[in-house]
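REQUEST
  id: r-88c1
  op: predict_structure
  target: Phosphoribosylformylglycinamidine cyclo-ligase
  payload:
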Amino acid sequence: MSENTGAGHAAASYRTAGVDIDAGDRAVELMKEWVKKARRPEVLGGLGGFAGLFDASALKRYERPLLASATDGVGTKVDIARRMGVYDTIGHDLVAMVMDDIVVCGAEPLFMTDYICVGKVHPERVAAIVKGIAEGCVLAGCALVGGETAEHPGLLGEDDFDVAGAGTGVVEADRQLGPDRIRKGDRVVAMAASGLHSNGYSLVRHVLLNQAGLALESRIDELGRTLGEELLEPTRIYSLDCLALIRTTEVHAFSHVTGGGLAANLARVVPDGLHAVVDRSTWSPAPVFDLVGRTGSVERLELERTLNMGVGMIAIVPEESTDAALTTLADRGVDAWVAGEITDRGEHGTGAALVGDYAS
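RESPONSE
  id: r-88c1
  status: 200
  body:
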């Protein structure tokens, strides 16, 4: 006697359950050309293997190589990309969030993998996301050695997606940067952000889209473009700029300004007994920061602990290295300036503090 558990129903398949293997295969074919552009000589094999291979014999030139790793995503900025139907820039954000964390310790980015989760595989859309990741890897000087695209029907809507990534870099042990190198009198060199980068979008979306009801397609005069274009501006990737600084002058530490804002991230690399004082009057944040603050009646301190306020990366250098650092960054097209210095703990306590008012 046979048992029929599917009486009255069509035969089930992975496709009827919502997963389209053929669409996934087409997405892989479309992304291959972009992954090829994000290679390094140490990468072995091509796309499609179970694991990405990186020739570790390249590390023999190091006396004591330290591997640095990081993983991250881009948060709710993906919602802006989805609403705008623009998918080829969010990958830049992903690479920046991962590889600019890795370079903080002085490590050279080596390779990266990505994870893309979607409600439904739209091959061209997935390929566009990977295109952005590959282009970001080129800007960071690392290879994209592989990744995963997962289709989650029933958990995500057909147009929903999220991205995450993990990266690896390497630094010589005796060249590792960090708090131990920082000295009183060091200068805090700020590198300009390209915009909001990839942090604080829950606040930004709540204020501008939900509370104020602004349309992403609306042109905002003070921004000089549409709101959507401003919010999708890719995160600046500083990895190669930081490595250039290390090659050309003395650097004691870097700080990647992400979630928590400038002061909190800078405090992470300031040693006990010293303090970083940053003068707001040395720069004027881009109009988008004022737009968020003014529209949502967000207090300045709340803005500063949520958004980067126009500074995406910090380099802490000896006073005598300041001119060389600024020259190197200017030559690379990075807007940078001396924003503060390292002092004794004093009246501001430990960590880092912003003082004064922003330049008008």
